Amino acid sequence: MELTIPVKVTERTFARLAEIAGDGAPKALRVAVLGGGCSGFQYDFQLEDEAAEGDLVIEGPDQFGDQRVLVDPESLPFLAGSVIDFKDELIGARFAVENPNATSTCGCGTSFSI
């Protein structure tokens, strides 16, 4: 039986977290779904030191050090099948979620509805 991770994280995300950490201790990127925003739900990205009990912990490839992405159990159903990425575009650099569960998103990409 193959174990599948319900959320995928790109190497670009782990590379950016390694850049943020620099020579210091790595921080974990917490990705959460909160109520609110212009479409009903919004993504929240925070840097944290430790995982909380019950978090899904996704560890990055060895070449990026001890970088991790955390998802709390309440947010996980909203993020099932999603891809967490770091985008560096003309409009700015940001962490982003490509969520197949979202039926619509706002123009800024941080708010969505299901």
Q: What is the C-level CATH assignment?
A: Mainly Beta
Topology as H/E string? EHEEEEHEEEE
- List low-pLDDT spans: none
Percentage of residues in DSSP E strands: 35-45%
What is the count of β-strands? 9
Shape descriptor: globular
Major sheet details:
6 strands, mixed
Keywords:
114 residues; mainly beta; Hypothetical Protein Aq_1857, Chain: A; three-stranded mixed beta sheet; 2 helices
Describe the structure.
The protein has one domain: HesB-like domain (Hypothetical Protein Aq_1857, Chain: A), CATH 2.60.300.12. Helix content is 13%, strand content 41%. It contains two helices and nine strands, in the order E-H-E-E-E-E-H-E-E-E-E. A six-stranded mixed beta sheet has the order 4-5-2-3-9-8. Strand 2 (28-35) and strand 3 (41-48) form a beta hairpin. The longest helix has 11 residues, at 11-21. The protein is globular and about 40 Å long. It starts with 6 loop residues before the first strand and ends with a strand. The mean pLDDT is 83.
Secondary-structure blueprint of this entry?
Elements: E1 7-9, H1 11-21, E2 28-35, E3 41-48, E4 56-59, E5 68-71, H2 76-79, E6 82-89, E7 92-98, E8 104-105, E9 111-113
Parallel strand pairs: 1-6, 2-5
Antiparallel strand pairs: 2-3, 3-9, 4-5, 6-7, 8-9
